[in-house]
Specification:
The complex is a heterotrimer of chains A (about 400), B (about 90) and C (about 350). With about 90 residues, chain B is an all-alpha fold. Helix content of chain B is about 55%, strand content about 0%. Chain C has about 350 residues and is an alpha/beta fold. In chain C, about 35% of the residues lie in helices and about 20% in strands. Chain C has an 11-stranded mixed β-sheet, with helices on both faces. The chains are: A alpha/beta (about 400), B mainly alpha (about 90), C alpha/beta (about 350). The interface between A and C is large, with 70 and 65 residues.
Chain lengths: ~400, ~90, ~350
Amino acid sequence: MGAISAIGSSVTENRMALMQEKCGIGPLEMFVTKYASLLPFGEIKITNNLLREKLRAHEPGLTRTTLLALHACEEAIKDAALTATQLNSFDTALTGASTVGGMCLTDELYHDANKKENGSAYLSSYDCASVNLYLQQRYGINGIVNTINTACSSSANSILYGARLIKSGLAERAIVGGVDSLAKFTINGFNALHILSPDKCTPFDEQRRGLNLGEAAAFLVLEKEEAVAGKKIYAELTGYCNTNDAYHASSLSEEGDGPYLSMKGALAVAGISPADISFINAHGTGTENNDLAESTAMLRLFEKVPLFASTKANTGHTLGAAGAIEAVYSILNLVNQEVYTSLNFKQPIEATRLQPVQSYTKMPLQHVMSNSFGFGGNCASLIFSKTDY
Amino acid sequence: METVQLKQQLKKQIVEFLNLINVKPEDIKDDEPLFGAGLGLDSIDSIELIVLLNREYGITIQDPKEGRKVLVDINTMADYIEKHRTK
Amino acid sequence: MLYIHQTTCISPQLSFSTIQLDQLQESVNNRLQVIEPAYEGIPNGILRRMGKAIRFGVGAALPIIRGAVASIDGIIIGTANGGMEDCIKFLNQIIDYEEGMLTPTNFVQSTTNAIAAQIGLLSANKAYNTTHVHRGLAFENALLDAVMLLKENTDAHYLVGGVDEISMYNYNIDYLDGWFKKESIDSKDLYQSGTTGSLAGEGAAMFLVNGNSENAKAKVAALHLLHTEDEQLVAKQLTLFLEKHLRSGEKIDVLLSGEDGDSRSLHYYNACENVLDKQATVARFKHMMGEYATASAAALWLACIILKEQSLPGHMIKYGSSSSNVNRILIYNNHKGRQHSFILVEKMK
């Protein structure tokens, strides 16, 4: 696994931060926007130049989104000890995700889209595919390469797709994940919808006022059971499901149909019952709509709602990276048999009375579910299970 | 500007701003509900209309919920504009 | 792999309300823009918000959704740029209004998953819904996604599509990047141009797919995706592909080639033609559909029509015959010289 977020530049750093209840959300120090002084963000305090130096990535046209993806991908590949032969093999797949792509470069994009001459160095870097096309080239990946964008559930779907490539025999191993960097495009977009909170977000709290945007990247290396003898294994992906809420372009239905169906579907794939879920890493953005719909869905599905928490209060909502980084966090729960505090929670939502985890606790965990629900009603749920390896 | 003129202008602006199809400004009645039944606008439209009020009339409404109280029909909108416009 | 039961295409040609491929519609200002039909079945309240790609993407899907006898178990769309027009409109707002009060519709409609989401919304479909955006292989990944799903459940039905639009903005970006002709050119002269760049195209092609052959219109027998700039590797992979998927005595009748008039990528198409060694009729489609990331979806629709009609319009033919027994069509396409795909399409027996 590999991860970089506002609370750490590696999986280990992220875990330490989660254990210590560190919040990576605060005032912007590097990114320039009118909202810098008005809203808090989960900014990764590393400049693009530093990233380029560290990653030896000096090719022209590399966006911050690509650099962050490279950082996490590099860590994951090293962690999985993939050899050059394995990377170049025709049965190694790569599926990434992003919602922003190179659109973090607002001024360059404005120029290139509107002006007739002097194109910038980023002409081929604006789409989401540009990130994974770079990774494909950098690592010489010769198997199936893909990019998915389903808004906030993008990288959960990326993990799901990679898993199914292996399951259907189209790949022996898959590098899966997602990334997003801060962009005026998403900041202004979410702000125009009035769902950005002026304070640090408070997932599942009655007084919640919206989400904080963050940036992050996370990648995981998936391999099939028969190939893992002698290797370090973190967890097994046992359940996954993708559904659509089909209610509205930018909000979930009150009953949380999409979330309910995706959680239920993931359980079916895993072949386990709701009572078997030890813990849920919730989507929990801190918006009025999501947290209520998600809570309602959990109450519908679970006779007794399991322990749950939202790590978006630590990292912010990292959009295209959310599914992947929260998958990493769910796996950390399992590997270390611990749950992390859901920060900033004070008062349960009146209609549901549900309370997320409120302190770091070591405890036995067998199956952890991770949820991602997005714009366009795109919902995805993943289940990770403890293995005996 | 006369109230009647303002209402006519407002209807035209709403049709253009929200890109309403097959709706002529003169078809919109002054007391026809904008949301739900009537013109059938939704929550995204309410945000768009708040932006319209800002761009055309210099009025700032921060909270969409407050906005819904103003955006009942053409009459309430025109009334609010007359009282609060800065442009 | 999978069977196509229904297919529609909104394109720069007469391909939707009536299908008249002999009547070649030509480019205007170096662009091949879609002929938009009257959109029946999209409520005005929703239509008013839709940008062009979403409009014709949804428009192409609707007849299939409405005509489907069984429930649709998933909606899988491939698009490289989604609602690019709306995206840049929102970006322009950000700059013009200096991040002030902005209208959200452009933002909400600009996300690439908006097409699949709107189709899901209009058909109240709560099942699998995803959007692949891997540029020149976005549609192929969507198709592969359906292949994998059908492997797990042969009886399921999926709506798979490829959609992309020419917006003034992404035309500009690709033009500056050298992907479109600098000189003014007519689409009928595309292949003789000898210059770099191609003509911008757009379109939406939709397919209802299932794992059962009964009543199917065509079969996608095999699919291969490749990233390379080495034409020898493309040729080698094609040879292996044909060895693997053609049984003894079987041959490719038509090579449906994505040759696009760009002198820089001609060598890939020549390499593939050489593999087939004049054994197949070679036909081209980008003078009809234009060049865009998901053009292979339009090619697959064309393949279905050719298999049904057992003939192809003369203007498509590079060499070979326009009518004879067409049992097997190989689509070879590449996008920007780096992303390649082979799709083997077979006639139903």
